[in-house]
Design brief:
The complex is a heterodimer of chains A (362) and B (330). Chain A has 14 helices and 12 strands. Chain A is an alpha/beta fold. Chain A has 2 domains: 269 residues, Rossmann fold; 74 residues, no CATH class. In chain A, the strands form 2 sheets. Chain A has an 8-stranded mixed sheet with strand order 6-7-8-3-9-10-12-11, with helices on both faces. Chain A has a 4-stranded antiparallel sheet with strand order 2-1-4-5. In chain A, strand 4 and strand 5 form a beta hairpin. In chain A, helix 5 crosses helix 6, helix 5 packs parallel to helix 8 and helix 8 runs parallel beside helix 9. The longest helix of chain A has 18 residues. Chain B is mainly alpha-helical and 330 residues long. Chain B folds into 2 domains: 59 residues, no CATH class; 222 residues, MetI-like (MetI-like fold), CATH 1.10.3720. Chain B is 75% helix and 3% strand. In chain B, the strands form 2 sheets. Chain B has a two-stranded antiparallel sheet with strand order 1-2. Chain B has a two-stranded antiparallel ribbon with strand order 3-4. The longest helix of chain B has 36 residues. Chain B is globular. Classes of the chains: A alpha/beta (362), B mainly alpha (330). Chains A and B meet through helix 3 of A and helix 9, helix 10 and helix 14 of B.
């Protein structure tokens, strides 16, 4: 269903087409064999990203966004999952690498921040020791030197009185502080690619913005490339250059952030955007959730994966949405959409929805 | 940490007090007249009354209890007004008129046997249980896992007396690898001691090891899926270090501490194993004193066992606080 025809398109997907983007994912698929059947968590995902840019991958739980991130990181257990496709990072293909070379990249070239900083830090060890361990995993550095670096980094990520906190246990810190520690640990070896998997989901709203700002600031300072995984479109607009919307293990829309917010085309993206609460909106008073639930990854619909929840599938002649998987196609330069609806129709729907959301005629 | 310790120790004493009261009450309201049991067949009411007085059973329950507790701390004298008073030194847990011996010295004689039995078995079961459990978890779904889990299920489902009798039949009677068990202290004859203890250790350890293999496997599998283990992987640490330093450290801590409680439970006497191998330990003492309705011994043993478990609980909690920094504060 994922034809190779989309590959050259997605290669140019994000912005200026360089001959060799910093990160390029081609036709990535991850499947977990389970007793109930094969769970196709990620199905033919292709994307690319330039150095220093931020890509947001947006989707609901189970959309495959986290598995995509973990596959890029190399964290998907190869014994438990079938991974296919290609991941090129700075000219090096990662999926074919032997485990020990993946290990060398993890934590040095690619680093990751996770959703829940409480459970992601080891409860038995002092935070300083955990960061020192990350340094010594990749560099021949003495303990004193590693500790000095750790102290500097803790200061850098905005932890007050780092010389005291360095010997604290994770449970002695607040959620925001813990996430700062996680960020310090991720950045300690100056990775080129930082993957943040829902870094703010477990945090208070007031802390969320601080953490995002911190990531953005450090990204500028270290010129890090960032992949931000989130289900929260509200935070994407401020930080991301490009957005990939995922649904049912596939990318359903891929565009620059401005394009996506200005004129989204895929009905699912529209649904996501209309379920973001906004203060500047007068009407409607109720939020517009997307009705229904995400599909089971074991029994995906035959046609368009989003069809059961889509309000517009009947507008497509010949019930194509029920029988044929749509391809991810370029509807305008650098804007990719996976939908059977005609381009003009999609744009019209988007305009209508926007008008309704803006409180216009219903 | 200090406040935590003080609180726990005070709690332990409170618990011991409540426990001794309830054990004492329980045995004083039980049917059966201990005074009647102390004199054999040719019994007359005057003898029973005299015995009742000698045992102190004609005192009101509260007096009996205070005398008992007093005896534990300062010693006491039974039938003080008779021509032959019986002195019982502190800590006095009572006096067995059936065996004509202090309960404490009965226990002191049997305790080492049980202690050696329990500790030996503990060492074996922890070693076997943890290592096989870890191997099974790390090879989940593969043949090593299936084999280990199958064997542990067999060990788990066989009763101790069955394993014991089978071992006695083959190892001692049929193949004559070992002589018939006859307990002797290890200081006297270490070789015979080991010959005697080997099978009891194996029987006892088998039961616990089978359980601990499952416990360990589940625990390790659970921890391997924890977020901080993923973080350790994401740091690029070698898998060995991820497993040993991050997963096992967190996963095995509760098991090892909980094992302390199981060991404590055994210290009260491993009734079945001791009886099969005729080891004169606390378990055998308990069984014979129950058949003889030797109430003072039963009371003393019950209190001792409970005290050991309460104490072990404290030790386990303190150990846990030492290992897991999260416990120290809350």
């Amino acid at each position: 269903m994922t034809s190779t025809s989309e590959l050259p398109l997605s290669d140019r997907a994000t912005g200026v087409s360089l001959d060799r983007p910093f990160l390029s994912v081609k036709n990535l698929s991850v499947a977990f064999p389970t007793e109930d059947g094969l769970v196709q968590a990620v199905d033919g995902v292709s994307l690319s990203l330039e150095r220093g840019k931020t890509l947001a991958i947006v989707g609901e739980s189970g959309s495959g966004k986290s598995v995509t991130a973990q596959a890029i990181m190399g964290l998907v257990n190869r014994k438990a999952a079938k991974v296919s496709g290609e991941i090129w990072l700075d000219g090096q293909e990662l999926i074919g690498l032997p485990q020990h070379e993946v290990q060398e990249l993890m934590g040095s070239e690619i680093a990751m921040i996770f959703q829940d900083p409480m459970s992601s830090l080891h409860p038995f060890y002092r935070i300083g020791d955990q960061i020192v361990e990350a340094i010594q995993a990749h560099r021949q550095v003495g303990r004193e030197q590693a500790r000095r670096e750790t102290l500097e980094m803790l200061q850098h990520v905005g932890i007050p009185a780092p010389e005291r906190r360095i010997d604290a246990y994770p449970h002695q810190l607040s959620g925001g502080m813990r996430q700062r520690v996680m960020i310090a640990m991720a950045l300690i070896n100056s990775p080129q690619l930082l993957i943040a998997d829902e870094p703010t989901t477990a945090l208070d709203v007031t802390v969320q913005a601080q953490i995002l700002e911190l990531i953005a600031r450090l990204q500028r300072e270290f010129s890090t490339t960032v992949i931000l995984i989130t289900h929260d479109l509200g935070i994407v607009a401020d930080v991301a250059d490009d957005v990939a919307v995922m649904y049912g293990g596939r990318i359903v829309e891929l565009a620059s952030t401005e394009t996506l917010y200005d004129h989204p085309e895929m009905p699912y993206t529209l649904g996501l955007l209309s379920s973001v609460p906004r203060m500047d909106r007068k009407l409607p008073e109720r939020l517009d959730p997307i009705r229904g639930n995400p599909p089971s990854p074991i029994k995906l619909p035959k046609g368009c994966v989003f069809q059961p929840r889509c309000d517009y599938w009947q507008r497509v002649p010949g019930e194509a949405c029920l029988t044929v998987r749509p391809e991810l196609l370029e509807s305008e330069p650098d804007h990719f959409v996976r939908c059977h609806l005609k381009v003009e129709e999609r744009q019209q729907i988007a305009r209508d929805v926007k008008q309704i959301l803006a409180g216009g005629p219903q | 940490m200090f406040a935590f310790l003080v609180r726990r120790i005070l709690g332990m004493f409170l618990l011991l007090f409540l426990l001794s009261v309830s054990v004492f009450l329980l045995f004083s309201i039980l049917p059966g007249d201990p005074a009647r049991l102390t004199c054999g067949k040719a019994c007359t009411p005057p003898i029973i009354e005299a015995n009742r007085h000698r045992l102190g059973l004609d005192d009101p329950p509260l007096t009996q209890y205070t005398k008992f507790v007093g005896g534990v701390f300062f010693g006491r004298t039974f039938s003080a007004d008779s021509p032959e008073p019986i002195k019982c030194d502190a800590p006095c847990l009572g006096y067995s008129f059936t065996r004509h011996e202090q309960v404490m010295s009965l226990i002191a004689r049997s305790a080492p046997v049980t202690l050696f039995l329990a500790i030996g078995a503990f060492v074996i079961w922890i070693f076997v249980g943890l290592s096989l459990g870890i191997i099974a978890a790390l090879n989940r779904g593969r043949w090593a896992d299936r084999l280990i889990m199958g064997v542990s299920l067999i060990g788990y489902s066989m009763p101790a007396f069955f394993i014991g009798l089978v071992l006695i039949f083959f190892v001692i009677i049929k193949w004559q690898f070992l002589p018939f068990p006859s307990y002797i202290s290890p200081w006297e004859n270490p070789f015979q001691f080991f010959q005697t203890m080997l099978l009891p250790w194996i029987v006892l350890a088998t039961l616990y090891a089978a359980f601990y293999i499952r416990l360990t496997r589940n625990q390790v599998l659970e921890v391997l899926g924890d977020d901080y283990v993923r973080t350790a992987r994401a740091k690029g640490l070698p898998e060995r270090r991820v497993v040993v330093k991050h997963a096992l450290r967190a996963g095995l801590t509760p098991i090892v501490t909980a094992a302390g409680l199981d060991l404590a439970g055994l210290l009260g006497g491993a009734i079945i194993s001791e009886n099969i191998f005729s080891l004169p330990g606390l378990g055998s003492l308990a069984v014979s004193s129950i058949t003889d309705s030797d109430l003072p011994v039963i009371t003393g043993l019950t209190l001792l066992t409970a005290a050991i478990i309460i104490f072990a609980n404290l030790v386990v909690d303190v150990l846990y606080a030492v290992v897991d920094p999260r416990v120290r504060i809350s």
